[in-house]
Amino acid sequence: MGSNLARNLASREGNTVAVFNRSYEKTETLITEHPEAGFIATSSYEEFAAALQKPRTAIIMVQAGRGTDAVIDALTAVFEPGDIIVDGGNALFTDTIRREAAVRATGINFVGAGISGGEEGALNGPSIMPGGSAEAWQTLGPILRSIAAVAEGEPCVTHVGTDGAGHFVKMIHNGIEYADMQLIAEAYDLLRRVGGLEPAEIAEVFAEWNTGELESYLIEITAEVLRQVDASTGKPLVDVILDQAGAKGTGAWTVQTALDLGVPVSGIAEAVFARSLSSKPAQRAAASAMPAAAAEWAPDDRAAFVEDVRRALYASKIIAYSQGFDAIVAGAEQYDWDIKKGEIAKIWRAGCIIRAQFLNRITEAYAADPELVALVTAPYFTEAVAGALPAWRRIVSGAALAGIPTPTFASSLSYYDGLRADRLPAALVQGQRDFFGAHTYKRVDKEGTFHTLWSGDRTEISATDAH
Ligand SMILES: NC(=O)c1ccc[n+]([C@@H]2O[C@H](COP(=O)([O-])OP(=O)(O)OC[C@H]3O[C@@H](n4cnc5c(N)ncnc54)[C@H](OP(=O)(O)O)[C@@H]3O)[C@@H](O)[C@H]2O)c1
């Protein structure tokens, strides 16, 4: 990532880029392989600092955690007040809040910037989510704008908010990415197991979907992966890849953070858990003989079934993005960040992994109502989900009857039904809580907080008298 980002920077008019890696041989390889970049190779932090114009700007691309702390410490020792240290790795946003405060105390600016787009994005234009101070953004803005991806003429970078806001938003981006990928995988599984389509045929279905409202990078690459044939066996590549999905942790961070914030990101959580379940071979082997008691599901009209899957995918995807944006709203409130939700959707339109056509609809929704309480309640999304509902219910119920796991499809539909319900069984949960723990409850018909004397005569008292 670091070398590609450096090459991207060096390719922009007027930029001379100094590079440093703790292993000097890697720096040498980079400058030898890319003489066109005109890099200044440096072999120590002192030399690196001396090579930069003031105020200096350094972008760190190392593993999150101790490595990042080590590099920040070393740079802080050789930089001066007014200089800028940018951490472009996938740091946990609470670490970024801590680091920003510590570095700011030295007079040096620290900016945690989420960078999405993988190796290719780093080279040709990523989506960049910087946090840090407004002062640092003054200097950094033009540099990051010059290397970012461009969507409809606009660079995919914006000052997200102070301290850890950039890494927070990047974390949510990755969480949404987990949900989006799992949803696509569930759609593939249904098309194959119920629709009876072969991977190459499913690739064509995805390619077709990529011309409509589902148009996105992830749908596009799914078609590519499904088209790929394994050279050594002649089988579809997807059939020879071990079905155990890995994870680097940003999905789990999203869910952990959302739990702390009390935001239901059930689609993202199910996607993270689906990867965990897949990666438990011993448990899966032990459970493989368990009964299915499933019914045969063979739709008469295959084209109609494929369309149902598409609609269910689109509705579930709307829920996943809605939940992700709800988490951004809650995080902004908790950490006092002025995050412009519509701007975030805009900078995800190119360069990043979840780039998609429908992000424009999110920008429009927040432009129409910046205080939107839940993204899915915006008219465009409500309508889109309503149009998909019969198909969505057919797919989720059909999968349940057929014994096909659809954790993100099903949880997204459940979330939708929960959100729109007039009345939830939470009332009973409150009753149970009051029974065993005197946790009290409120009533629908009068003000106040109440407790029933469950171990006494079961009369109700005002909670202020209960203790
Ligand atoms: N790969 C992606 O698609 C992607 C996308 C977005 C964000 N990111 C984030 O970008 C960062 C870099 O990822 P990457 O894929 O480029 O990783 P990478 O190829 O493994 O490179 C990591 C770099 O960190 C250096 N490093 C590790 N520990 C260090 C320490 N203690 N002190 C000094 N340098 C240290 C390594 O130096 P040596 O060469 O000497 O080992 C290497 O230059 C990570 O935070 C990652 O999460 C990656």
Ranges with pLDDT <50 over ≥5 residues?
A: none
Q: Report the helical percentage.
A: 55-70%
Class from helix and strand fractions: alpha/beta
Number-wise, the strands total: 10
Mean pLDDT: 97
The N- to C-terminal Cα distance equals 59 Å
- How many helices does DSSP assign? 20
The geometry reads as globular
β content, as a range? 5-15%
Tell me the quaternary state.
Answer: single chain
Largest sheet: 4 strands, mixed
Strand order of the largest sheet: 3-4-5-6
- Small molecules bound in the structure, each named once: NADP nicotinamide-adenine-dinucleotide phosphate
What does this structure look like?
- This protein is an alpha/beta fold and 467 residues long.
- It has 20 helices and ten strands.
- Strands 3-4-5-6 form a four-stranded mixed β-sheet, sandwiched between helices.
- Strand 3, helix 4 and strand 4 form a beta-alpha-beta unit.
- The protein binds NADP nicotinamide-adenine-dinucleotide phosphate (NAP).
- NADP nicotinamide-adenine-dinucleotide phosphate (NAP) is lined by residues 1-2, 21-23, 26, 61-64, 67, 70-71, 89-90, 115-116, 118-119.
